[in-house]
Design goal:
This protein is mostly beta strands and 210 residues long. The protein has 1 helix and 25 strands. It has one helix at residues 3-8, and strands at residues 11-12, 17-18, 22-24, 29-30, 35-36, 40-42, 47-48, 53-54, 59-60, 65-66, 71-72, 76-78, 83-84, 89-90, 118-120, 125-126, 131-132, 137-138, 143-144, 149-150, 158-161, 166-170, 191-192, 199-203, 206-209. The strands form 5 sheets. It has a 9-stranded mixed β-sheet, with no helix packed on it. Strands 3-6-9-12-15-18 form a 6-stranded parallel β-sheet, with no helix packed on it. It has a 4-stranded parallel β-sheet with strand order 2-5-8-11, with no helix packed on it. It is globular, with a radius of gyration of 19 Å. 32% of the residues are buried.
Length: 210
């Protein structure tokens, strides 16, 4: 093995449990007591913090940061450049039970017709301690505040906070809150970020870089 190949290999802590069928991209780091069930996919140059759990069927893109003690259940897809704060919990069942009605014993933990899929789009941020409900989409470059309880889709660049989370504004690609856009608006004159000077505007009701 060449020196370049060795330096590009994933770094996996000796206490991490990585099951068969897990694919991990070059340059990624998985820290102590991480558990990843197979099959699952983690992209290149990601960081998975200590005691994080990633279920089977989960896909994680490139350049993603998962802080400590994040719970990522089956049915979740995380795109590139996403940040997930410590203690965040994803869910995938709107009406969970430990039992199957009319059947003795525990209900199966396998995905079924009640398992809902959630996707976190490119560049989004989820603050520490957030709770993400099932079957949702968190839009590109959206910002979920710490401890928010997300029960509805978050639009691209949307800033949500509270329990349940409510749309309170919009943020730039760089994360800076944008001025001059009314909450819930679908049309607006292009606005300029006060930090990076990007121009953003609504196109067909979706906010993005102009």
């Amino acid at each position: 093995m060449t020196e370049a190949a060795r330096s590009d290999a994933p770094r996996i802590h000796p206490t991490a449990l990585i099951e068969p069928g897990v694919q991990i991209g070059p340059g990624s780091s998985l820290w102590d007591n991480v558990h990843v069930r197979g099959p699952a996919t983690i992209g290149r140059e990601c960081i998975v913090g200590e005691k994080t759990y990633i279920a089977y069927g989960v896909t994680i893109g490139d350049y993603v940061k998962l802080n400590a003690m994040v719970y990522v259940c089956t049915g979740v897809a995380i795109e590139d450049r996403v940040f997930v704060g410590a203690g965040t919990i994803f869910t995938n069942d709107r009406y969970p039970r430990a039992f199957a009605d009319g059947v003795e014993g525990l209900a199966s933990s396998e995905p079924n017709e009640d398992t809902l899929e959630t996707v976190v789009r490119t560049g989004a941020t989820i603050g520490a301690g957030a709770r993400i409900g099932p079957g949702l989409e968190i839009g590109r470059y959206a910002m979920v505040a710490l401890a928010a309880v997300v029960t509805a889709d978050v639009p691209p660049h949307g800033l949500v906070l509270g329990a349940p989370a409510r749309l309170r504004g919009y943020v730039c690609v760089c994360g800076t809150p944008l001025r001059g856009i009314e909450v819930g608006a679908e049309t607006a004159t292009a606005v300029s970020c006060t930090r990076c000077e990007r121009q953003l505007a609504f196109v067909d009701g979706v906010l993005g870089v102009a």
